[in-house]
Design brief:
Blueprint: H1 17-31, H2 38-45, H3 49-56, H4 59-72, H5 77-84, H6 88-103, H7 113-116, H8 126-152, H9 162-181, H10 186-198
Helix pairs in contact: 1-2, 1-4, 5-6, 6-9, 6-10, 8-9, 9-10
């Protein structure tokens, strides 16, 4: 009678959650939400599907965590500029410069994860698109809050339409993102940023 020898079982791999999340972020950033499959995520993260679901709950939840991480790392340049620069104009100048730098980085420019992640979605993923829209609008609201402060401090004219000004610069930043993904050269986007800054209204309402 043969005695079956059991093979010792290897120690299960411990998930490095931080590393796995960054891998997922990079994949979502390049391909968008619907363009990224669970199979591709598990391959990039070095985990099995059960491990992915145990750690993150679902693909949707993983995507939201990836967006949070993007906002706190690669996409944090807007928040830093608004908090650190002494004037609103200096903040916008820095944001535009950093946007070109971040969105054009890498051998394949990725643009902004918030702007390109899911502009359109199938009906079952509409909440993903709605979440991205909320995040983009929150960014514009942060610009407006800084412009309101600039108006109160006399940097902008009292009658400045800060909502329109914030929407304008938000549109420029998102446009830079889309054109970066389309392969528009960095120097062209830098010229776009300079042109947008030339329209900055001064304390009298005329371009500064």
């Amino acid at each position: 009678m043969k005695t079956e020898t059991k093979r010792p079982r290897g120690r299960p791999r411990v998930l490095d959650r931080d590393q796995a999340l960054e891998a997922a972020l990079q994949l979502f950033w390049r391909r968008g939400y619907e363009g990224t499959s669970v199979a591709e995520l598990t391959a990039a993260m070095g985990v099995t599907p059960p491990s992915l679901y145990a750690a993150f709950g679902s693909k949707d939840a993983l995507y939201r965590e990836a967006l949070d991480r993007y906002g706190a790392s690669h996409g944090a340049f807007t928040r830093r500029a608004l908090a650190e620069e002494p004037t609103a104009r200096a903040a916008i100048e820095r944001i535009l410069r950093d946007a070109v730098s971040v969105y054009c980085a890498g051998p394949q420019p990725r643009g902004c994860m918030l702007a390109t992640g899911a502009l359109t979605c199938s009906p079952e993923h509409q909440e993903v698109a709605a979440d991205l829209a909320r995040r983009r609008l929150a960014g514009i609201a942060a610009l407006r809050a800084r412009f309101d402060r600039a108006m109160a401090e006399g940097e902008l004219a009292p009658a400045t339409d800060t909502a329109a000004l914030a929407a304008y610069y938000g549109a420029v930043i998102q446009g830079i993102s889309i054109q970066a993904r389309d392969g528009v050269p960095r120097k062209v986007l830098q010229a776009v940023a300079r042109a947008a800054l030339e329209g900055w209204p001064g304390p009298t309402g005329a371009p500064a």
